[in-house]
Amino acid sequence: MFLSPRYKFIIYLFPFLTPSIHAQTTQICDSTNATTNSGRYTFFPDITTTDKDGYQCTDFSLADENSGSVGSTTLFNTTFSWSSSPDISTPHSFPSLTLNLPSILPIPISNISLFPLTNNWALYPGNPLHTISATSPDSLLNASVIAACYLNIYLDLEPSLSLDKRFSATKISIWQANYGGLIPLGYNDTASTITRPVINLAGISYTLYVSQTSPSTSSSSSSASSNSNSSTVVNDEPQVPQTIYTWYPSVNATTLTAMDISPLLNYLWREVYISSNTYVGFVEWGLDARNSVGNVTWSVYETGMTVKPGTPVRAVGMGRRKEVGRGEMLALVGLFVGAVVLFG
């Protein structure tokens, strides 16, 4: 992949790194991934669009900084520019960090005592600037940014399948922030009489939405990639029917400090949405990027996460019994074939 002048311009704009960190930084402008020195985290650019006028470049730190709460943290800058071509119904890219814990993952969902998540980031128009430390929704609106930050957790009754997001039967998506009106799949589904479960964590109310997707209804990236350069476009679309449980927040949050999200997982198996024997495997945290006018930068100044086995914590909130039962959800698989486009 040849770098356009726009790529070359942002190469020199990474001033917030210290010299020692800068020396351990790698730049990724294609489908290449990179793993931190400790092996704990791997960065994936996950470019899934055929938008010929767009691009994405990331400066990723290979250094880990020790953190007692989440083990270690790292940082990166991703600059992208995506148009609405071919459409914005699916992510154009999902620059993300995956968690590598082979001594723990996969693990039964009912055997997780803590799942702390730490991150501090800003999303803003333009190239990387160390002087910007906060996200301005108005500036993103002016730049027509459509994006969302969330954590994806993939699960399956078969441990090996839980480690492959293409073949996992279940996905739990915990949203952190969204811009440009992006909403999760299932947000507008079902009658208004349905009472959705709500769980309160760290002053944020998370509402549960449930949806179903299948290979035939989430293949937009797959069909598009057949006309693309395979070295720059990836296809991580589900190859099996997948149930998606999305926890959607009442407010955007760009800073989390060791926030334990395990109660959101525990609610699902305690209320029998998910079997307690289901394994948590592949874990990724990233930005669903779909549209912008000009360059937009996602500066992640700190990010880290971990999973700790043990006795689970019970969720606090106004949780209700499931809005769609497990049997009903299985029946919906056929109903949704050809009718749903996967979000994230």
UniProtKB/TrEMBL annotation:
Q: What top-level branch of life does the organism fall under? A: Eukaryota
Q: Could you mention a single GO BP entry for this protein?
A: polysaccharide catabolic process
Enumerate the residue ranges of region (Disordered): 217-236
Query: Is Metal-binding a UniProt keyword of this protein?
Result: no
Keywords from UniProt, A to Z, are: Signal
Q: Which SUPFAM superfamilies match?
A: Concanavalin A-like lectins/glucanases
Q: Which GO terms describe its molecular function?
A: cellulase activity
Coiled-coil region list:
none
Where is composition skewed (Low complexity) in this entry?
217-235
UniProt cross-references to Gene3D superfamilies, sorted A to Z = 2.60.120.180
Q: Where is the signal peptide?
A: 1-23
Listed PANTHER family:
BLR1656 PROTEIN (PTHR34002), CONCANAVALIN A-LIKE LECTIN_GLUCANASE (PTHR34002:SF11)
In the record, the note on similarity to other proteins reads:
Belongs to the glycosyl hydrolase 12 (cellulase H) family.
The protein, known as = Glycoside hydrolase family 12 protein
Task: Say which species the protein is native to.
Answer: Botryotinia convoluta
